[in-house]
Amino acid sequence: MTVYAVQYTYTDDTATLDAVRPEHRAYLRSCLEAGTLLASGPLEGSRALLLLSVADRSALDALLAGDPFRGAGVLASVDIAEWKPVIGPWVELA
Questions:
Q1: Category of 54 on φ-ψ map: left (φ > 0), alpha (ψ -120 to 50) or beta
Q2: Which of 46, 51, 42 is nearest to 10 (CA)?
Q3: Prediction pTM value
Q4: Count of H-run helices and E-run strands, the chain
Q5: Closest to 51 in 3D by CA, of 9, 82, 88
Q6: DSSP H helices in 35-80
Q7: In angstroms, what CA-CA distances link 1 with 33, 64, 76, 78, 86?
Q8: Of the four, 5, 53, 78, 86, which is 20 to 30 A from 41 by CA?
Q9: How far apart are CA 43 and CA 33, in angstroms?
Q10: H or E element in which residue 29 lies
């Protein structure tokens, strides 16, 4: 498995963000239950961080494609980096 740090930067369309957020969070909860989402949450400045554990980059791309925020067009940018934890509860995933 590979761990990825995914940073979302949102558009300024707060009305759509607010409307789609419950569906987005339900999707993330399903990812948590499936074992692919390790953690997620907002960052300062209209951004969010997701830590995901998947087989490879194509699996990550497929997972992110299913996020309702992506379908709603509220992501101004998505930055992805492979992350190799060396200390903490997710070391065995790297």
A1: beta
A2: 46
A3: 0.94
A4: 3, 4
A5: 82
A6: 57-65, 68-72
A7: 16, 16, 28, 21, 15
A8: 86
A9: 23
A10: helix 14-34
pLDDT in tens, 74-93: 999 999 999 999 999 999 88
For the chain, first and last CA: distance in Å?
7
Confidence class for position 53, pLDDT limits 50, 70, 90 = very high
- The predicted-structure confidence for 58-75, as pLDDT tens digits, reads as follows 999 999 999 999 999 999
- Residue 46: phi, psi to the nearest 5? 60, 45
For residue 7, how many other CB atoms are within 10 A of its CB?
14
Q: Cα(51)–Cα(6) distance, rounded to whole angstroms?
A: 6
Distance CA 77, CA 9 (A): 5
Cβ 9 vs Cβ 70: under 8 Å: no
Residue 21, helix vs strand vs coil: helix
